[in-house]
Amino acid sequence: MKKLNWGILGLGQIANEFAETFNVENAVLYAAGSRNDEKAAAFAEKYGIEKSYGSYDALLADPSIDVVYIATPHSHHAELILKSLEYGKHVLSEKAITMNNNQLSQAMKLAEEKKLVLAEAMVIYHMPLYHKLKEIAQEGSLGKLKMIQVSFGSLKECKFQV
C-alpha cells in the first residue's frame, strides 16, 4: 500500500493537537501550510514535518501531497475544500465542514466528480459510547425514537488563571 502524504492547512491549536496525535499506518505528515512562512517553518520543525509553505496555494500545488487536513477557522473551510479538491487532494476538514448546505453540496459534488474523499473530522462517530447508543436505538428497547437531545463537550486545560 502506498504511503499517503498529508498536508495541514491552518496551524492553530487544533492543528497542533492533530499533529501531536497523528499516528496513521501508511501515512506521514509531510507538509504544513500557513499564510506565514515563519509560522509554517516553526510548526514543521516542531513536528518533524518535511515541508513547510507560507501560502495555502503553494502547499496545494505540491504534487506529493495526497490528503489535506483543513484546520483553519470554519469560515474559510468551503474555499479551501474546493481549492484542495481542484488540486486533486483528498480532504479531511475540521467541523463545521462548511457554513451552509449550499457550500457543502458544492464541495460534495466536486469531490464526487473528481473521485476524491471529502470527510468531516467528527471524532464522536468513533467513540464507544456513540456505537453503544446507536445499538440501543436500533434494537428498539426504548420504543420508537421521536427526538434525541444530547450535550457534547470536551475537557480542555485552562491556559490562564481564573
Automatic annotation (TrEMBL):
Keywords noted in UniProt: Oxidoreductase
GO MF terms held by the record: nucleotide binding; oxidoreductase activity
InterPro entries: Gfo/Idh/MocA-like_OxRdtase_N, Gfo/Idh/MocA_domain, NAD(P)-bd_dom_sf
Domain of life where this protein originates: Bacteria
Domain Gfo/Idh/MocA-like oxidoreductase N-terminal per the UniProt entry, residue ranges: 4-119
Cross-referenced Pfam families: GFO_IDH_MocA
Membership in a protein family: Belongs to the Gfo/Idh/MocA family.
Protein name, UniProt field: Oxidoreductase family, NAD-binding Rossmann fold
